[in-house]
Amino acid sequence: MGKVLIVYATRSEETKGIADLIAEGVRISGHEAELKRVNEIKNEEDLKGYDGYLFGSATYHGEMISSMKQLLFIAERAELKGKPGGAFGSYGWSGEAAGRIFDTMANIYGMDMVSDGPLMLKAGWVEGGIQAAQGYGKNLSAMM
Ligand SMILES: Cc1cc2nc3c(=O)[nH]c(=O)nc-3n(C[C@H](O)[C@H](O)[C@H](O)COP(=O)(O)O)c2cc1C
To answer: Angle, to 10 degrees, between the axis of helix 96-107 and the axis of helix 66-75?
Structure first.
């Protein structure tokens, strides 16, 4: 059984809702999922010991939440090369955050990224949201 770390940044909890559903998909696949708010990750040691990583942030003013930017600098030192990864986020209309996180995980850390690209959802409760988010967790799990 593998262990997946899901770290999320949210302001009004929609991205947390998506993270919860992704975690369900991981667990349905028979793996362990650990959920953490972005401010719980203090240094690169907090990121070590997992078999897969999912980072998520909502989009505000065309960007990810700033605490997720800090997390991405911490993750640079966590030796994530070759590990399965994915990115997600809630958005209103443009949704840049998930794509930016995804690109950093692929290009800077050299992670093995989910082939469907970043998961962008307005919320977990929108039509098809449960299936999409659980499916994202399942797809990451299939790579472990
Ligand atoms: C002040 C403000 C700015 C926002 N800017 C954007 C934006 O640039 N692009 C976008 O897609 N959504 C934007 N949104 C919408 C949020 O991304 C959306 O409400 C999302 O569900 C919030 O997720 P959260 O609950 O995880 O914080 C904005 C919302 C607010 C309140």
So the answer is: 10
| Contact 13 CB / ligand 1 (< 6 Å) | yes
What integer best gives the mean pLDDT of the chain?
Answer: 98
| Domain at 130, CATH number | 3.40.50.360
DSSP letter (8 states) at residue 46: G
Task: Give pTM, 2 decimals.
Answer: 0.98
pLDDT of residue 34: 98
The Cα–Cα gap between 86 and 18 comes to: 13
Contact status, residue 44 vs residue 72, Cβ threshold 8 Å: no
Task: State if residue 60 touches ligand 1 by the CB under 6 angstroms criterion.
Answer: yes
Q: Which residues pair with 9 in a beta bridge?
A: 57
Please give the number of the atom of ligand 1 that sits closest to the Cα of 91: 17
And the tokens for 56? 């998520």
User: What are the phi and psi torsion angles at 8 (to 5°)?
Assistant: -135, 150
Q: Which domain holds residue 86?
A: 3-142
Note the residue count of the chain: 144
What CA–CA distance (Å, rounded) separates 38 from 139? 23
Q: How many structural domains is the chain composed of? A: 1
